[in-house]
Every structure is written in C-alpha cells, then in structure tokens.
Hints:
2 helices; about 0% strand; about 95% helix; mainly alpha
Amino acid sequence: xxxxxxxxxxxxxxxxxxxxxxxxxxxxxxxxxxxxxxxxxxxxxxxxxxxxxxxxxxxxxxxxxxxxxxxxxxxxxxxxxxxxxxxxxxxxxxxxxxxxxxxxxxxxxxxxxxxxxxxxxxxxxxxxxxxxxxxxxxxxxxxxxxxxxxxxxxxxxxxxxxxxxxxxxxxxxxxx
Length: 176
C-alpha cells in the first residue's frame, strides 16, 4: 500500500517536473520571440528614418547624388530584408522544434503510461496465481486433516468395539 503511494508520489513529482520544464521552454521561446519583434520594430523605425533622411538630402543635392544614395539605400534595404527573412526562418525553425518537442514529450508520457498499465496487469496476474496456489494448498491440507480425523475416529470406534466385546466376553451381564 505504501509502495503504491510512494509510486504515485514519484509519478506526480515526475509529471510536475516535466510540466515545469515545458513551461520554462515556453517562457524562453516567448521571450525570444518578443525580443525578435522588438528588433524588427527598431529596424523598421531606422529604415523609415533613413528614408526620410534620404528624401531631405535629395532635396538639397543634385540628381547624380540622388542616384548614388538610392543605390546605397537599395543595398541597405536588400540587406535588411535578407536579415528579416533569416530571422523569420530561424523563428519558424524554433517553433517547429518546440512543437516536435511537445509531441515527443506527449508520446513519452503515453508510452510510460502503457508500460505502467502492463506492469500492473503482470503484478495482478502474479498475485492471482499466488492466491490460487495458496487456495489449492489449503484445500489439500483441509482434505488431509478431514481424512486424518476420519481415520482416528474409525480407529477409536474400532478400539471401543473391541473393548466392549472383551467386556461382554468377561462379563455376560454387561450387554447394555
């Protein structure tokens, strides 16, 4: 009984630990995603500021300078787009890994549950076999005891009849 309670307590602790680990991973992932969003917002702000600065400079400079600056801005924009795409891909991979981890953890828990059920069935079956054997032993013992009592009774009756017969032989008047 205590072993069962200890096992249940151990199972509860293991489940709590798994849930805590999952919560920690979820929090870490959420923080990472928040940081990435903030970085993207900052980059978008810097891009908007760069565009405004470029427009102001364009007003004061000639057309050739405008072309050089536009090329430079296009290169910066392409770089920022590439970085954003890489961050997006990284975030998607992290989310996929997280989902796969959750699925794997669920499968492990289910597999452990099945193993525990199987072990319980084996234990109950072994206990049933043990009980059957003990019942059979008790039945054999009780039959042996009954047979022994019958034998002793028969022996006692035989002796009593012999004593009665001897008493009658010795004393003719003792026939009652």
